[in-house]
Amino acid sequence: MEVPCVRVSLEEGEQTRRELADADLIDDEYELTVEDGRLYVPVTDPGAVPDTLEVVSMAVPERDTQTTPADVLGFDPSYERLGKTVLLDEDDDVRARKIADAVLESDLPVDTVLNKQSKVKGETRVRDWDLLAGEDTEVVHREYGCEFALDLADVYFSPRLATERHRVAEQVSEGERAVDMFAGVGPFVIPFAKRGAECVGVDVNADAIEYLRENARRNGVEDQVTAICADVREVTAEYEGWADRLVMNLPHSADEFLETAVALAGDDCVLHYYDIQHEDDPFGPGERAIRDAAEPEYEVSVETRHTVRSYAPHELNVCLDVRLERDDGHDS
């Protein structure tokens, strides 16, 4: 079957393969193939491949030698991948250990297995983990051409939101000024900066802010990123009227920070507001809260009503992309 592949000369093949492997872009389900004196490397996300490399569609053979955890167990376990770490959510410790052993026995490029031991808790939104295999809870995760270091015991991070973060990042233009009000380790800030934005990331978690600074360095955007450890309400005065784009990914309580968001917004600002609501009216409460906070100072227009994922039975995690345009009839 035809799949997206990077096509390079054989002389450049090994260096290119290493670069793609470092970016976690090689599609392990297909074989690397040589044809007409060139190497074809199957990739998982052609959009994240550097512009300097050529991407083509090519029929390459599937790999049939990969042993999966399901092959070892006889059933298909549920897990998430984050870099070289597998994350489990198993209540039964014996079952969790059995799955961990199967993961390590499989051909997955994994060296750490963690099992969730608590729900996300506290102001810093971290959880407890049981380390079933590996050295520690620190991981390096690659996502759409960006690299993130983080410690799951100290910061919140969800790999499930990668597609959503990419959707938002693709809207960013060079020269924008963006504020992520709950920035974490930088999964919005870093791709924004790589697209040429000047970014401010704020978070109350000091560990997350240290990783945000490290991740800015890892991705070569440290000159475009300001990382601040604080409640975002404490930095409003310094950045009042500054932002062309705001991210509010704190879905259970973002509405409590809308007054701050309005203060940070420039004359023409896009707000990405995340919410969790009942499926009967997933967007209404957020839209009403934004209008209550921003009108009449700003004209409010909802550009996108987007369902991110199902959160719980009858509850949806949603995002409102909202444009705030200052009404010239009102003073700032």
From TrEMBL:
Domain SAM-dependent methyltransferase TRM5/TYW2-type: 79-326
GO molecular function: tRNA methyltransferase activity
Gene Ontology biological-process entries: tRNA N1-guanine methylation
Gene Ontology CC terms, in alphabetical order: cytoplasm
Top-rank lineage group of the source organism: Archaea
InterPro entries: MeTrfase_TRM5/TYW2, SAM-dependent_MTases_sf, TRM5-TYW2-like_MTfase, TRM5/TYW2-like_N, Trm5a/b_N
Alphabetic keyword roster: Cytoplasm, Methyltransferase, S-adenosyl-L-methionine, Transferase, tRNA processing
Name the record gives this protein: SAM-dependent methyltransferase TRM5/TYW2-type domain-containing protein
Organism the protein comes from: Natronorubrum bangense JCM 10635
